[in-house]
Structure formats: structure tokens, C-alpha cells
Write a structure and sequence with these properties.
Blueprint: H1 2-15, H2 17-33, H3 39-51, H4 56-72, H5 78-93, E1 107-112, H6 119-132, E2 137-142, H7 149-160, E3 163-165, H8 173-186, E4 191-196, H9 203-220, E5 225-233, H10 238-250, E6 255-259, H11 269-277, E7 281-285, E8 293-295, H12 298-306
Parallel strand pairs: 1-4, 1-5, 2-3, 2-4, 5-6, 6-7
Antiparallel strand pairs: 7-8
């Protein structure tokens, strides 16, 4: 396990190179370039953080927190601010102890997100990981409108060796969920993972569809623990934040899966989403392999962002 974790952390550090280059190098220059902590120092720091897609609101909150701590602790040396800043960002990202409760209960997990963000792939990867933990896992192909989504999920289900419930393309998603819930109960599945459609450009239809799906689950499986994860593409930066905000209007989102963090300079968006919406990032993806999706670890993530380049 330790080896796997180190491997993932190593790939995370590598994947966040572009973000780190735009954040840590700039911050290093500020901390070493200023001899005192003044308004210009804070202004430059603010500019660097906004550039990494932390967003104005999150950056303002982080800088205010930093100012307060510098004052309280009577810090005079800019270099001493570095650790304070890192700790402040970690505080923004900490997960509750209950973040992964769904794993240990009979649960239904909905994954929602627009096309192209890696939603179906995330369902497949999660299925494989939960199966590897010894869970009885089933997947439901309720993204019935996207061509090849059912085919893609079937491939992942086969790879993970889990059962898939699917109907033909264009079927009613709620009907697929009904079949899946019935099967999950009958076969005593631990976790039912549901791939759903996410057509944000037609929000009214999406809202109705999700309501219908939720009604089916509440009616047929009221005792199931519920988890709703929105999958976002980390490379889209502030656009991912906007999507999270919109999905939060149509669904009771409990967590975020942030994909494609390898090779983007916008890794700071993970902090912005959690800080602005109060929705925790629960998984991050840095590649195509099944173990390239991992539980989010604030300590590892912020360390990977700030690890000085050798």
C-alpha cells in the first residue's frame, strides 16, 4: 500500500508540474524578493494565486487569513509566511471523517457531469477499486443518450469484473436505475454505481431527469446510503467551478471527482471549488489507469503543489 501511495504521490507531483511552476516559482520569487511584509507583498502574492485558478474569492479569503495570522504571530520575515500559506490552503481542503462512509454501507452512488470530463471512466475506476476492497459492486449505465457510453461502461465493468445493468441507447435513465436498484437489492450488492447523463445546456431536462432518478431510488431503496459525485475536468479551471455551481443547483452534491489534473496549470481549481462551494473534492484523477483515480488527500495535494523543483 505504501509503495502504491508513493507511486501515486510521485505521479501527482509530476502531474502538477505546470501548476507548481506557475505557483511555487512565483511564490519563491516573492518570498525571497521582499525584505518586509507590506501591501505590495500581499498584492503580488494575490496575483500569483489568482493566476493558478484559485479564483478571486478564494484568494481573498486566503490572503485575509494570512494577514490575520501574520499580525497575531507578529511575523516580520516574508519567508516565514510560506508555511503559514501552505497550512492555510491545507485547512481549506480538509475532509470530514465521514467523507467515504458510502464504502461501508449499502449505498447508491450517482456520478454526474457533462460529456468529456471522464465520468464514465471514473465510474469504471471506482468500481474496480471497490471490487479490489472485497465489495460486491454493480454499475448502472444510465447515461443512455451519449453514443457509446453504454459500450464504454460495459468494457470497464468487464475489466473490473463487476455486473452491469443496462438497456439500449435512448432508454429512459430512470427505468435503468429502477432495474439496477432492484438487482442490487436482490443480489445484495454493497455499492451500486450509477453513470448518469449531464446535459447542462438543457438544465430543465437534466433537473427533471435527476429528480425522477432520485424518486426511483427513494421509493425503491430508501434505506440505501446516498452519495452524489459531480465529475469535473481539472484542465478547464474556472469553467469547472461554474459547472460545479450549476450542478449543485440541480442535485444534492456530496463530493467532487476532479479528473485530468496531470498536465494542467490550473490545479488550483481544486482549492477554489472546495473553498467557494463548500463541496469537498473526494477523488482526483491523474491518468488513464485504474489506480490513477485516488482518494483526495489535502496534505499530499498541497505538498505536491509546493514541492520545490529540484
Amino acid at each position: 500500500m505504501g509503495e502504491k501511495k508513493t507511486g501515486f504521490f510521485g505521479r501527482l507531483v509530476q502531474g502538477l508540474t505546470k501548476t507548481r511552476n506557475s505557483i511555487a516559482n512565483g511564490i519563491d520569487a516573492i518570498f525571497s524578493g521582499f525584505s518586509s511584509i507590506d501591501d505590495d507583498f500581499y498584492e503580488e502574492l494575490e496575483e500569483i494565486l489568482i493566476m493558478t485558478d484559485l479564483g478571486i474569492n478564494t484568494t481573498t479569503a486566503v490572503i485575509e487569513n494570512l494577514r490575520k495570522k501574520v499580525k497575531e504571530q507578529k511575523i516580520k520575515d516574508p519567508e516565514e509566511c510560506r508555511q503559514l500559506l501552505i497550512n492555510s490552503l491545507k485547512e481549506q481542503m480538509l475532509l470530514e471523517n465521514t467523507a467515504y462512509d458510502f464504502e461501508n454501507q449499502k449505498s447508491v452512488v450517482l456520478l454526474i457531469g457533462v460529456n468529456g470530463v471522464g465520468k464514465t471512466t471514473s465510474v469504471g475506476k471506482l468500481a474496480g477499486q471497490l471490487k479490489a476492497q472485497g465489495k460486491k459492486v454493480m454499475v448502472a449505465a444510465a447515461d443512455t443518450f451519449r453514443a457509446a457510453a453504454i459500450e464504454q461502461l460495459t468494457e470497464w465493468a468487464n475489466r473490473a469484473n463487476v455486473e452491469i445493468i443496462a438497456q439500449k441507447e435512448g432508454s429512459d435513465p430512470a427505468a435503468v436505475i429502477y432495474d439496477a436498484v432492484t438487482a442490487a437489492k436482490a443480489r445484495k450488492a454493497d455499492v451500486l454505481l450509477c453513470d448518469t447523463a449531464g446535459r447542462l445546456h438543457n438544465k430543465k431536462n437534466l433537473m427533471e431527469e435527476l429528480k425522477k432518478i432520485n424518486r426511483v431510488i427513494e421509493r425503491e431503496y430508501p434505506e440505501a446510503y446516498r452519495e452524489t459525485l459531480v465529475v469535473l475536468d481539472g484542465t478547464t479551471g474556472q469553467n469547472a467551478l461554474a459547472q460545479a455551481r450549476e450542478f449543485n443547483e440541480v442535485a444534492d452534491i456530496t463530493g467532487i471527482v476532479l479528473t485530468k489534473l496531470d498536465g494542467t496549470a490550473k490545479g488550483g481549481i481544486a482549492i477554489a471549488i472546495q473553498s467557494e462551494l463548500g463541496i469537498p473534492v473526494k477523488y482526483i484523477g491523474i491518468g488513464e489507469q485504474i489506480d490513477d483515480l485516488q482518494k483526495f488527500n489535502a496534505e499530499d495535494f498541497i505538498n505536491a503543489l509546493f514541492q520545490k523543483n529540484e
